[in-house]
Amino acid sequence: MSRNSRYVELDADRNSETRRLIDAGNRLAKEVARLFPSEPDLADRHYWLETMINHVPDYIYAKDAEGRFLIANEATVADNGFNDLQELVGKTDFDLHPPEFAETVSETERRVIETGEPIFGIEERAIVTKGYDRWLMTSKVPLRNKRGKIVGVVGISRDISERKAAERLLEGQARLLEMVARGEPLETFFHELVRLIERLMSGIKGSILLLSEDGRYLLQGAAPSLDETYCAVVHGLEIGPNSGPCGTAAWRGQQVIVSDILADPLWEGCAHVVEPFGFRACWSTPIFSRGRKVLGTFALYSGEAGAPNDQQQELIAMAAHLAGIAIERKRAEDRISFMAHHDAVTGLPNRALFEAEVSGMLESIRGREQWAALAFLDLDNFKLINDNLGHAAGDVLLKAVAGRMRAAVRKTDVVVRVGGDEFIILLNGVPTDRDLVLSRLEDIRTAIALPVQLQGRSLQVTCSMGVACYPSHGRTASELLANADLAMYRAKEFGRNNLQVFTAEMAAKAHEKLQLQEALREAIARDEFILHFQPQMSLASGRIFAAEALLRWQHPQRGLISPATFIPLAEETGLIVPIGDWVLRAACRQAKAWQEAGLPPLIVSVNVSARQFRERNWAARVAAVLAETGLHARYLELELTESLIMQDLAGAIATMHELEAIGVHLAIDDFGTGYSSLSALKRFPVSRLKIDRSFVEDIPSDPDDEAITAGIISLAQKLGLRVIAEGVETEAQVEFLQKSGCDEIQGYFLSPPLSSRDFQALLQGCDADGV
User: In what residue span(s) does the PAC domain sit (predicted)?
Assistant: First the structure.
């Protein structure tokens, strides 16, 4: 049975123990009363009574009404410093003990005598300590003579020090575990733990040392009773095989018992360090994690030479175990907190930590002649590295960039990873010198752009940076961040790889953009869009065989708005998806309406955005629109750009085959301006290539454009594809294209984009080709 179990058992028997004391007290009181006056067998009775009580280890005594000892057993006599009962008889507690202790005892006994009420099972600290903290359970009853008059008290006291120690230990353990659960500071926990052990082990002083992160040194954790001078000497102790008891215990991962500091070889050469403090023994125990990794040491110092006894060893093991629990809990909390406030890839603070601290940083320079410069930066074309080399390579690059930024700023500055390839840099408390601030930020941009070795190749990544300064460009963190973000996007508009400082003009444009975005959302809800159609003509027959559907926004106040004004914003916000769905449905409905009006069937060509094309089950959605409008699939052509297809080549080809299976025609728009390879082109299930207007507009004056255009036509012919040139405006361009073998044309030479009514009139005025 363990010592703690025995303590619990003792505690459970407390009531019965009290009852036994009461019964013994009553019996003793009767026996003592019977001693007065003397009777014929008094001598015999006195002898047996004396023999009985002297064999009891508890204190048993009787006092008269003045507190003078009348009788006592040997335990009482000896512990009060006497050899014979007669030396004690007649003396009071005031003769034996300090007045403050004697007064407490006397007051209790007077109450028993005056009231006639016994006092049972009271717990009190022992006056005689025997060198350790002792507790007694005491009962006192009135001493009456034969006539029933109270003439004194009878007292019985039992030593319950072990049980009290167990109670205090259990209470202390519960309190310590509660501190761990509440997340109390580690230093507070350590102090409470050491104090508990010191209370339970008289004459002992404790110390907790923590192993440094690199596992080389012991650092001060708590030593509430040790001299600060000694603590300073021990702090930073390097662990090793002969590095004092604590350093050695941490090195070996085993308990080290030094019974005599002055004689033990572990203290050789440094015993003089502890000698002024009176230490003679030191017992050091490693503190372990659950995985048996050394976290620190728990050491006890004694003023007397010797090793710990079994009870002390149990307390030491308990203390080291609790210390390990607390350290691991704190480290787990620290890890969780770090993960919550730092980026997992770069280790930089994240936006949550930045937002929590930035207000205080700005407040610290309020009213001073200083700035805080907030830079919002985005790595240029980072997605290409991720897509081509993989995310692992991208993470290596991010770590390298983060390290360069940290190295380029001061300790008082902050570098934050917002997410993806976006970062924030806050230069806090810089001089109010624009050129100096911009110079520092340009140095950071230069450092970022240095080559990085990735998978055996040297790569460079630039950044676009926007800057806003406190207090000129904002007085709160959110204002600064929003304005720096605007400036960063302006840097991207200027071709990336540059720095832009926020201006009021940027804010005005951003406000205008926000208004346009809201108006665009309302336009979708209010059905404010219309379609114009530009005819496409076959050069061989001279007949109109198709029309490209072109979107226009009929704004209630601003009138007709060109797609160049709102399509980029729609792409950026994702509104292009519902708008594109509307265009597809409206174009198919109009083509079907022309057919029902008796016009020759013609193909309607619809532009597809990248966001649309990436939508899940997009081919099925196209089929649903055709079914809804009643238009046959062969009268619908979808125009895809090279850049759209190459974003996800495998996925794009799969979707294109799904559309081909439906019967829809596919064309590559703006051919020659993208970056598709010829090997990829031959895999596309397309029927037409559309030559971009940028190659056509300078024909015939630019021989390079003529060569490129002729080359595209020749390539298409060899691949079995038809070719249509857009942006055709002059007779000379038509002649060149016809001579080069171009199949079809589209442009102002034939007709500008027309409303559906005007386009119908155009068709009715000429013979349209059948399809």
Answer: 120-172
Asked if 435 and 442 touch (Cβ cutoff 8 Å), the reply is no
Contact indicator for 644, 610 with CB cutoff of 8 Å: yes
Confidence of residue 276 (pLDDT cuts 50, 70, 90): confident
pLDDT tens sequence across 204-218: 999 999 999 899 999
Region of residue 463 (phi > 0: left; psi between -120 and 50: alpha; otherwise: beta): beta
Gap between the Cα atoms of 278 and 263, Å rounded: 14
DSSP-assigned beta bridge partners for residue 427: 373
Pick the CATH number of 165-339 from 3.40.1180.10, 3.40.50.1240, 3.40.630.30, 3.30.450.40: 3.30.450.40
- The contacts of residue 63 (CB under 8 Å, 6+ apart) are 69, 70, 92, 109, 143, 152, 153, 155
* Domain-wise residue ranges, the chain: 3-159, 165-339, 351-502, 516-764
Q: Are 583 and 551 in contact (CB under 8 A)?
A: yes
Does this model's pTM top 0.70? My answer is no
The number of beta carbons lying within 10 Å of the beta carbon of residue 446 is 12
Q: What is the rounded CA–CA span in Å between residue 322 and residue 315? A: 11
Q: Tell me how far apart the alpha carbons of residues 399 and 448 are, in angstroms, rounded to a whole number.
A: 11
Angle at 16 between CA 10 and CA 22, to 5 degrees: 125
